[in-house]
Amino acid sequence: MSGVTIIGTGRHVPGAPVPNDALARVMDTSDEWIQTRTGIKQRYFARDGQGVSDLGVEAAKMALDDAGIEASDIDYIIFATMTPDYFFPGSGPLLGAKLGIPGVPALDIRQQCAAMPYAFQLANGLVQSHAAETILLVGADVHAGFMPWTDWDIVRSEAEREVARDAYERATKHRGLAIIFGDGAAAMVLRDSQTPDGGFIGAELHSDGNSFDHLFVPGCGFRSIPYVTPEALLADEHIPHMLGPSLLKKAVRTLSKTVRSLCETHGVSQDDIDCFIAHQANERINQAVRQALHIPPEKIPSNIARYGNTSAATIGILTDELRRDGNIREGDLLCFLALGAGLNWGAALLRL
Ligand code: COA
C-alpha cells in the first residue's frame, strides 16, 4: 500500500537574524550561556502586523514551485500554528485567500511543536479516504508577541541605549522561554506516492493534558470573562509559562520511547532509517535522544543554531533545507519526531 509523500517544500523567515548578543542587551543572559545550554546562535522575529499567514504564503509559493504545480491544484489546506493571525478564525482560510484559492477546505491544527507527526497522519487519512488529493501543509509560528520586552529597536540593533531597569528585570524573569523561540514558516505539498510501500508508513501519537502546565499561556483564555483584562496583561499572563528543565527530561524520555515503539510496530529496524528529522527545541534534547537510540550523529541533523525553536515550522524548515541541499532523496526512509505543548508528542515514518 502507498501513503502520502512530500512532492514539494518551501520555507520563509522574516527580516534579519537576531543574534544572542542582541537579547543580552535587554535581559540578563549571554551568547555563551544560550549557545552552551541550547545550541542556538540566532533567530528571526516577525514585525508588528506580520502574521503566520503572511509568512506561510511565502513558504507555500516556494513549495508549489518546487512541486511544479499551481495553487489551483491544491484541494485541501492544513495549517499548523499555535499563534494564529487572529484569535479566530484560524489562519488556514486566510492562507487560502492569499494564495487565490478561496473555497478550498482549510483546517487549523493545534499540536504546537508536535504538529508535524500529527499532520502527516491526518493528511494520509484524508488522501486515503479520497477527501483530498493534493494537500498543502503549512506550519508557521510568530512568537514575537510573546516576548517579554518592548524595546524592539534595541533587539533589532536599530537603536543603542540602555534599557530601563524594570524592563530589564521583567525580561530576565522570562529568559528561559525568551531565548529559545524564533519565528518562521514552512510548507509541504503532499500527495499519494503511487508506489507500493512508498510515502507515509505510520505514526505513533500521544497527548497528555495532565502535563499542560509544562508549557502554556496562563491568561487570555476563555476561562476568564472577559478573556483579556488589563490585570492579566500587567501580570504578564499573556506570556507562556514553561517548566524548562522538566520539559527537557520529558522530551528525551518520551521521544526515545516513541521512536522505539513506532519502529517495532512497523517492523522497521532503526538502522534502516536514513534520517531522523527531529523538532529543534534544544540541541541537548536531540543529542540525548541520539545517544539513547544510538543514532549516528550524521543521521540526526540540526539547524537550531540558525533559527531557534520555530514551533510548528521547525520540522518543515529542516526538511526543506535537507531536500534542497540533497541530504535527503527519493527512496530515503525518514523518521519525524517532536514534542510540544499539550503535552503532545509523536513520531512518524515516511519513505520519500
Ligand atoms: N540566560 C542565562 N541564565 C539563564 C537563562 C538564560 N537565558 N535561563 C535560565 N538561566 C539560569 C537559571 O536562572 C538558573 O540559574 P540558577 O542556577 O542560578 O538558579 C540556571 O541558568 C539553570 O536554569 P535551568 O532552567 O535549569 O536551565 P536549563 O539548562 O534547563 O535551560 C532551558 C533552560 C529553558 C533552555 C531548557 O530547560 C530547555 O530548553 N527546556 C526544554 C524546552 C522545551 O523543550 N520547550 C518545548 C518547546 S516545544
Task: Describe the protein's architecture and organization.
With 352 residues, the chain is α/β, with parallel strands linked by helices. It has two domains: 4-192, 3-Layer(aba) Sandwich (Peroxisomal Thiolase, Chain A, domain 1); 199-351, Peroxisomal Thiolase, Chain A, domain 1. The chain has 13 helices and 13 strands. It has helices spanning 20-23, 31-38, 52-67, 91-98, 115-128, 152-155, 165-173, 175-178, 230-234, 244-265, 283-293, 304-307, 314-324, and strands at residues 4-12, 18-19, 42-43, 76-80, 106-109, 134-141, 184-192, 199-207, 215-216, 241-242, 275-278, 333-340, 344-351. The protein has a five-stranded mixed β-sheet. Strands 8-13-12-11 form a four-stranded mixed β-sheet, sandwiched between helices. The longest helix is centred in the C-terminal third of the chain and has 22 residues, at 244-265. The radius of gyration is 20 Å and the shape is globular. The mean pLDDT is 97.
